[in-house]
Fold this protein.
Amino acid sequence: MSWYYPKGWTDQEDGVEQVLIHYTATPPGQWPDWSWGHEARVLQDLGGHPRQRLKVLRMPRTVRDVEHGWSTPEYRFHYYFEIFQHGHRWTTDLFTEDIVYRDLEYADPNGWVTNICIYWSVGDWSAPVYSPMEDPRVPGDSEFVATNYYTYGDKERFHHEKYHLLYGLDLPHRFRSRMWGPRGATLVQQYHIGRMYPPDEKNETWLGPQGSSAPGGDNCWVHHL
């Protein structure tokens, strides 16, 4: 699974035909070898004066540390821009950001919740993502672990089995997941919670510090990384 990171560019001069962002990730303390390959994306031209450009990047939740043989949820994000202007091309200096995470826990004291995600975004609500939350007592190899929900074909079966799985756990249920972003950034966050079983009790909402609301908006928690 992944998360989304908007990266923008503002034209400083006229005559810019296209802007690309080249990027890769490394474990903490390491620098990229661009000859090993990297990702490149064209920024969308949003117009305006000065002209604004934007691309929402799909970011990894972990990066493989080949040297030590494990994956790390905190890593370095390296990127530069390639600009095509007046028939020529030039590139910016290399930028590097530290990607860090924030863990969240949601305590359900009465067992009402059967499905829950962190609904969050970097900076503002322009590129939100859902991070499924799970009680750590649910076995990680379970067919009904929260991360399987979006790809599970028979949602009604999932609702039934997950309800009974959670019912067998002592209260409170403590659901956990995490968010990512560059160090120093602001994250906006709500919870998307639902009771999807029994069928006659189905209900879902987005929850912020002021209670239930529509997704996004000002009713949200703000985190500083």
